[in-house]
User: Fold this.
Amino acid sequence: MSPVTVATVFIIDDDSSMRRAIHDLVESVGLRARSFGSGEEFLAVKQIVRPSCLVLDVRLPQISGLDFQRKLGEKGLKIPIIFVTGHGDVPMSVRALKSGAVEFLTKPFRDQDLLDAIQQAIERDRIAQEDQANIQDLQARYRGLTLREHEVMTLVVSGLLNKQIASEIGASEATVKIHRGNVMRKMQAGSIVDLVRMSDKLKLVPPKE
Amino acid sequence: MANEDVQKTLADLSRELQESKARLEEAQRVAHVGHWEWDLETDVVVWSDETYRIFGLSPQERPMDLATVRSMVHPDDREPLYRAVDQDLIAGERPSAEFRIIRPSGEVRTVSSMTSERWSSSGDTKRDASGRPYKLFGTIQDITERKRSEEALREVSRKLQESNAMLEEAQRISNVGHYSWNLIENQVVWSDEVYRIYGLDSRQDTIDLAKVSEMIHPEDRELVFHAAEEALRTGNPADIEHRLVRPNGEVRTIHSVGTVKRDASGRPCEMFGTAQDITDRKRFEEVLKRNQFYLSEGQRIAHTGSWAFNDSGHYWSDELFKIYGLDPHNGAPTVEQYLALIHPEDQASMAETIRRMQEEKCGFDQLERIIRPDGQLRYVRAVAVPDIERGVFKGFIGTTMDVTEQELLTQELRRDQAYLAEAQGLTHIGSWATNFHTKQIFHISDETFRLHGFDPKHGSIPLERFFDRIHHEDRSGVTETLENAIRAGTDYEIREFRVVLPDGSIRFLRTIGHHEPSGGTGYYVGITMDITERKQAEQEREKLRQLEANLAHTNRVNMMGELAAALAHEIRQPIAASITSANACLRWLARNPPDLERARAAAARIEQDGNRAADVISRLRSFYKKGVAPEREDVDIKEVVQEMTALFRREAVQHSIKIYSELGEDTPDVLADRVQLQQVFMNLMLNAIEAMKDSGGKLTISSRLTSEGQVMVSIKDTGVGLTPENAEWIFDAFHTTKPQGTGMGLAITRSIVEGHGGRVWATTNLEGGATFHFTLPTGPEADT
Assistant:
């Protein structure tokens, strides 16, 4: 496991007292906080450190929180969002949650509720970061396979026996065994099940009939 | 010697005899007289040469006997001739007779035969023993020519008598008489007709020159004698017209002609002439002349020409030429020339009409346009009728009338009527003229028909049916008003009555009748108008007034609700912030060691937010203050503006609207109901924001003290602005320019401002947008 880094909570609220209160609360539990009066100010930030999450007021001066959420998605910025609102209604919260929001809180909210949501969001972001790292690792290993080995791996994970694979690629069963061994080793797979899971992550598609 | 002498003498005698005989023959031939001898015993007949000729035979071509002679006598004369001869002979008289003979050529001649006294050529009367002659001698003469002359003479004489009688008759009929004036004896002879002409009786009255002179009209006497003298002097016939005075005083006009006859020496001996009574003719002539004048004058005045088309030609009256702009000297036009005058659009139909007229011998009555040779367009009405005399078709006669002026007037009238009908249709006012007494309708406009639910196309409708349409509850009232007006001969007005239309719907009408005494009792001219819409509008207005009152209340309630929602948000914000700050504060304190610095900062924020919430609540409470009567107190405008700016801040930011306040430091307090004043600001600021919602902009609230000592507040936006008509109506209830507006906001604003003794109005900004202004009285001295 990589060392635990201090997560950052971004806060966007146009009401300064509310903004400052949330900022203070976040810092009181030892998290890093950065607050902004508008979405634009937030977007101006060069590097969004990870893991992190966003506490977003639904009613922003220029743009609604929901629209801002969509805008972030379009920019490829997949940061977990916790919505807070002065007068939220059910349809709005449903929409927000469907679009991937972690939580939808109505002001005034219990501090623990906000902090739990922040915790959950940061965890989710951390896993997402790790997954992202894993996939990059797997992709690197996969790129290390030869063309023949790619072929064999695809056929193995689709559940074919060595004999079948041999006839499929026009090689001897012994040759298939060697390729298979290479695949398992290069991909650092402990078992066939492991290899199948990796193939899932890599989104390998079995060749069509 | 004696013998010689005798012989000689005998020869001489014989020659003499021969000569004598020849002379006789010659004489007989010249005189057409022959002689004959008839032996009564032998019936042998001896003829002279001329006798043979008379009978159409050659002299002595054959011997004659009685039977031959008889056969040559005209059969009709044969028996009478011989019977007469026998009788004469028996009576011992010499027979003589005229009879006709037929020549062998068939020619009939008349002859006269006479028996000589000598009875025979030998000079002896040959008689038989009983004394009866047995031989006759006589002459025969061809009297055919003489007979004919006699006959002709008789005929002439008869004819003369006849013609005399006819002359008398003719003179009587034609009122022409003749006279002769013997210049030598100075005597005058008149025919009967002249007597009659002079009013005299030819059987009783006598005339002479003096009397004639006396009877001539005194004014014409000189004329008559002068003419006579002139005729005598020059020899030319006298020909004059003069008047005469009959014994009974009647004046007649005479046409008199006289010629002078001269004797062998050249001296005038007689004046012969005729006199004709032309009084009647004169009168007819005058009447005819007058009639012709009237006719042509009438045609001229009536712009009517007449024409005739028959065997004797094609006649056009002068006026007709004038109508068509043609020269009468060129004569009546041909059909082709005529058609060329017709307006091109009417030519085909006119050609067809003429064709039909000629083919079917039928008349026509047609309005046509013509274009005169000078290019002028005229309307003419042409009428033709076949001329049928005792069942025989003679041709056509007709009239043509220039109706241009009438036609143009008619067209104008028609246009005016169309405009009037249009106007009546638009205003739902119908006109009429009727005599209620006689129930006679003189005029009903289409709209009047429609107002009563009748279709104008269905034509006239009895007056009663209009009354039938009146609602039964109103009928007696209408009738009573009408009857009273008719009785009093006054105008009337029925301000409102109902009619029931065929579909059962009700229409409200109002009618005004003006009595026109010239039309007799009960004659009224009037209008009827549809007041249904006005009625409905009145009802509608009443409903609206009610609604307005209701809405004013609702608006106030709604406004409170909105205000509450807005304020709730305002309160929730500081409370949520203070709760969060309190949580943070607790967490700072719970730290080991507690971070007192951060905790204090959090606590300070809590206080701040708490105060902010309290402010909002206190403002909210002021909105909910109850009280029917407005509570007037000194209100600081600046304070209210600040509150309202705070209230709309979020809304304004959301629509990119910046709110500025430019409140004069000198702005005094106003005496007002605080809540109502807030309402005024709220309405005006909401309007301003609404106007800039899509574009963003600037909202400026300014205040100043006017010269009248009032506070004037202006709320200026940079939005869509006002149209001139909106500027006029915006303060009216229910006038709205917004899709979801109630149209009440500004109306309430005005009632509040005016209730405070102020005024509210709107102006358009030069740079765009609108500014709403209102004034309020200041301080304690302000008038309530």
Remarks:
- The first helix of chain A runs from residue 16 to 28.
- Chain A touches chain B through 21 residues (CB under 8 Å).
